[in-house]
Design a protein that fits this description.
Layout: E1 2-5, H1 11-24, H2 36-49, E2 53-58, E3 61-70, E4 80-87, H3 96-110, E5 115-121, H4 125-133, E6 137-148, E7 151-161
Parallel strand pairs: 4-5
Antiparallel strand pairs: 1-2, 2-3, 3-4, 5-7, 6-7
Helix pairs in contact: 1-2
Amino acid sequence: MTVRDATIDDVPALLAIHNEAVRTTTAIWDEDEVDLDDRRTWFVERQAAGFPVLVAEVDGVVAGYSSFGPWRPKSGYRHTVENSLYVLAAHHGHGLASVLLDTLLLRAREAGLHRMMAMIESSNTLSIGLHERRGFRVVGQMDEVGTKFGRWLDLTVMQLDL
């Protein structure tokens, strides 16, 4: 496995990973898949703002990605970011998420950021556990603030002091 900065050529793979999560999980609360233009715009905006987009490659195939971006749009929040982390289902359980998150945390610390937030659907105990093992702590629980697949979703709010 190799973790590296994503390039514009990785956008189709980022799209596939994103849309798999939309279709099959509650990790992303969107109900509709997006197109290549949407992911390209997202990637270009992240790059322009100086936010990393990392990919994990396994045997030359992009199998997961992570990023962080603004937590809230007001300038006073500029030292706090929110992370995103997704791995193709076929690659779950092989440590990709751990390496992606560790690398992302290193980048956040190098950038001099103060806090990282993780907003995780509350039944996703694997992601909550991964974040806890990296020092994130639960700072909030929001009940039934979203819906997907015909059910209400709870949100666990986690925070890491960088």
